[in-house]
Amino acid sequence: MNKFLKIYLILHLLWIACYSQKKSIAVDTYKSWAKVSRPGISNDGLYAYYRLDNLPIGSSSNVVLSTDKKWSVQFGYFNEPQFSKDSRKLYCMLPNDTLMMVDLKTHTVHKTSDIRSFKLFIKDNKEWIVACFKSANLVNFQNLSSNESFKFSNVQSYLISENGKYILLKSHGSQGNDSLTTITLVELSSKNEKVIYKGNAKVGQMVFDKAGNRVAFTANEVNGNTIYFYDSSLQIAKAFISENLLISNFKTKLPGENSLKFSIDGRKLFFMTEEVMENTPESDPNLIISSYRDSYLRNFQSAAGRVPIHHQSVINVTSGTIIELTNKYDELITQPTQAPDDYLVIESTTTESRADCFITYLQKKSYFICSTETGERIPIKIDSKAALQGINISPTGKYLIYYDQEKRSYFCYSIDSRKSYPVLSNKHENLVKIDKSEYPNSSFYCVGVAGWLPNDKSVLINGTYNIWQIDPEGKRLPINLTGKICQRDSIVYYVPTDRYLIDIHNTGSILISAFNLKNKDYALINFKLNQHFDKQSLTFKSIYTGELTKIYTNLSNSYLVKAKDTQAFLIRLETATNEPNYFFTRDLKDFSQLTALNQSRNYNWLRTELHNYEDSLGTKLEGIMYKPENFDSQKKYPVVLNYYEVKSNELNQFPSPDFLHGDIPIAWLVSNGYIVFKVNIAGSARDAGEAALRSINAAADYLNTFNWVNKTKIGISGHSFGGYETNFIVTHSKRFSVAVSAAGISNLIDFYGEMGDRAPLFVQYDQLKMIHSVVENPIKYIEKSPIVLANKVATPLLLVHNYRDDSVDIKQSLLFFGQLRHLKKKVWMLNYRNGDHGVLSSYRTDYYTKLSQFLDHYLMGKPMPDWMREHN
Question: What is the pTM of this model?
């Protein structure tokens, strides 16, 4: 025998032996699957922490380590970890009311028992810690530099001013048979205490102004809720806003829970009011009477009655003047909690109830900038046919930026000149999201404002492919920071977070992500605004982070955290074969792995391939092929097609066994002998069902070109909108061996009528792409409803739908099942009574088991399980 042939056979046998030793994923493997979460990094970037969920099984543990990996220590579960400002210590809470301090330099651990909570804060550039003892309600304040400390007893809660100079202490006592609440103001440096309130009311929210000179709090008194106010000119806090005052002047009252906030300058106090409910005509509290004359949809309010209408109000703390900034027809677009707070943006309609989707989406809207000083409303746009998007007030309050759907352009509004002018239009570049481009209302989905540069010098806007630097005065032309329009290169540039938009420690660099739509590679870069953008400086890797399936992924703290004082990051990265782990990087090019989860190595795992093909109209399509590690091209594999809209961007995503939201468990299927093909759906803006059918048929035709595909054993599966696609396909095609529809729609007329959520928007202008209302084109709604063609179903079908599904009502599947059952079609249905739009973890093993048995029976020829036979 040829020597090389012998070597090949030996290596082939070794390969088979290697993979044959690996076990397949079981239906309950997810129960023992660990994952990393909740990362943190010290200000100097030298230390980090993270959580190991489900390790040990059924619990969690935490790891603290140096980012150079020379030192690490694993603890049991802890919560609320915080690094000290000087990066020398880590504080956290243990489950048994114990405060733990880890000295990161000496590697020693100190524990203090009987602590229910703690907080670190800064005063005069010195760091303090406050610890609340569980017994005796003792609160201890300690200066971490000098170790100076002092205590207060009988404290139920406390509040520290933003500058750390003042403390509010709330304590409870008794006065005869009545409870007594005391609020004490403490000046931290002098330790001077002053009682500013003592009474029988239940005190709720307490707030300081920015300087700590003014205090406000809510009190639930016998005569209703009251807001109290205190400053240095008063001996004690005074009742500032009472319900009697509001009822007599505004016909409103204070809600049980409020949202107090002082303006940045401390001159105004923002608070919420609630309309006093008028008596309803119903004599029976269990009866709701509705009329076409109603200004809101009474029968879509809560079971307890009409939902209260809240107003945003403000009071001048000097004059006592109260202004209601909003009314029942308004919605706040920007909040008083956002800086600046001199102006708020308000959207106004003629509809009182925001639950009235038919009216609020379709009717015209007007937009105003409202002065929080005078209540004056300055019109931005009146009677707009489409909602303004991306509304953003600049940090100094000089400008307002927004995207106008009708004109497909960004506009800037100068608050000083009260003029609006275009600053970026679709002539420069398409400005909407790629994945929404086939929607009838694609202009609704602008990518959005990335953020402002210091002193409002420029605003950064994310385009479809590029990032634009815009002059808010409109005098300078827009600058494309990322080069020429990159459709040809198919690279999408994006600012993935505004938390680290401007890095003052690196001469004004911004964090930019780049996603290659062709091969799904990803890169991050710190880009300096004063330099020419060089695409060659990007280091692309076949990795996944955030939610890249949406392309424009915002990296939350779970995925990316940055050291405050230096260029150092923790980032969570994954590939299809390497589960999510945290990595340390300083340049966003070279990554040092800190966590070491590698559970997939113990199983017959999978690998992914990106495939390209065309549908019958010549439309180019993509799909992800999931093959097992021990793939053998000489075998015949059953295939399950999975779909929603665009799936191919998930090429490098790790299909963890512990994740399921109603869709199929890819890792389990592939590990147990299936091929899974995730399919992109592509079509015009008018044929969601036909587009799905055409795309799935194209995928099946493409699969049939491979010898290792069992052409008679191809199944389909989709969840939510994918469930509707499944229902549509099985009523229009007989080519598939089996189908699974989870939480899918079957009756578009019925679904359109489910007001109280966004069904009209969803059906006409979003995924279902019906364009017209059911009244305007009822025939189309009938034709596109799978339930109408139930008699055409020839594919064995499993419906999965749960009773607490708030997204798609279970009756969509119940009625479809009932019709199919009446027609003697092969259909089964799983309903988990406490499940929602997905399958809860408590039912996951049962669902995995039944799903696998169903697919195995029709695609692998295994015996029919009892749960199917008994109801056959």
Answer: 0.91
